[in-house]
Amino acid sequence: MKGLKKFAIIAAVIAVIALILYNFFAGNYNKMVTLDESVTSAWSQVENQYQRRLDLIPNLVSTVKGYASHEKEVFEQVAEARSRAGGIVKVDSAILEDSKKLAEYQKIQNELGASLQRLLAVSENYPQLKANQNFLALQDELAGTENRISVERKRFNDAVRSYNSFIRKFPQNIIANMNGFEKKAYFEAETAASKAPTVSF
């Protein structure tokens, strides 16, 4: 009887410890999954805004061409930058774990932003273009998209920061390493080339 009671106490202690360990591991694992999903969701919003910008370019170029058809070099630069960016707007989420690949993605998007600045600068030489309602609407939409890109990139970096700091802390880092949760890459601070095109009248 005494031995049975002792066995029951030991079994109860083991069960409590097992439950505590399970809750610890399951809770931290589930939190990592949630944070990882937040990063993926934030990334898709960045991609959506880059796609939106890419989709605006043909109409903007077409409108500018109507007034400044001899600005061939600028149109070629925009077309080339758009072509390069077009192939990588939607990319595999594995890019988020490779800072070099993310930096290359950012560089290509920055080059497209710079070529758009040059395109918008052309309008300074064409007063009729600057007064065109279609051009003004496209210019406003592009400026709004550039602002949204900045906002979404900040949200993405915030999500990455939360995720990275959680998986790197002890003892979560043990669970992260056991389950393949890798550190994510950040967008770097913007250079002058990636700032929103200046709108001036």
Secondary-structure blueprint of this entry?
Elements: H1 2-67, H2 72-86, H3 99-122, H4 127-131, H5 133-168, H6 172-179
Features:
201 residues, 77% helix, rod-shaped
Name the helix and strand elements from N-terminus to C-terminus, one letter apiece: HHHHHH
* Structural category: mainly alpha
Strand content: under 5%
The separation of the N and C termini measures: 94 Å
Rg on CA atoms, Å? 26 Å
Mean pLDDT score: 87
Q: Please, how many helices?
A: 6
List low-pLDDT spans.
192-201
Describe the structure.
The chain has 6 helices and no strands. With 201 residues, it is mainly alpha-helical. Helix 1 (2-67) packs across helix 6 (172-179). The longest helix has 66 residues, at 2-67. It is rod-shaped, with a radius of gyration of 26 Å.
